[in-house]
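Protocol step 4 of 5: obtain the predicted structure for the target chain.
Materials: sequence only (see below). No template structures provided, no constraints applied. The aim of this step is simply to have a reference model before the mutagenesis design in step 5. Sequence pasted as it appears in the construct record:
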Amino acid sequence: MPPATILIIEDDDLQYEIYEEALAKYTLVRVTNGSQALAKISQNRPDLVILDHVLSEGELGLDFLPEFKELLPFVPIIIVSGALEVHQQLEALQGPRRAHYCLTKPLDIRALKRTVETALKECGEHEAVRQFEALERSHRVDALDLFSRSTDRLSRQNRIKEIIGKSKQRPNISALAREFSVARRTIIRDLQELIRRGQLKPEVYPEWEHPSEDQ
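Step 4 output (structure tokens):
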């Protein structure tokens, strides 16, 4: 596979030389401010963005973060700056249009390499796919659980209907609850549903509108 393309938004020549040396195995594309970056992004989508905060032409990198995330929703962004306060770093890492990482200057080269590798491997599109798969799994589990509980309830209600149909006495709520290992209120709801559906006559359980706990 071709090497990943990294868009570096950095106006300091010496800082860019550090990137050239540390990230030599990647394809690097450099611009010096956010306006240039927006124009470059429209021509070619990078695999990762490294964003400085204080840029040329008086521009500030964080001001462009929402636009970058709008255009590159699945591309990881690493902010590298020595001019950000702690609260600014936290704000950049929070919310839907967030960066993935903040690194401070002077850069730790090993931390930079490690962060870039992790971002390319686990963030961006890979992260979105994992989230989508997790969402699918959770919905599937919920659906299976709901189906199982619904099937159990219908089976229990059919059995209750058979038991009541064979007896001329009022249903014993506590006895039915023990037989099916459920709460008394569950049996009461079952009787209510059976009456609503017309599967039991209302006189079988005439107090169902206002059941008392000692029935």
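Step 4 remarks: Residues 23 and 113 are 7 Å apart (CA to CA). Residues 149-204 form a domain with the Arc Repressor Mutant, subunit A fold (CATH 1.10.10).
Proceed to step 5.
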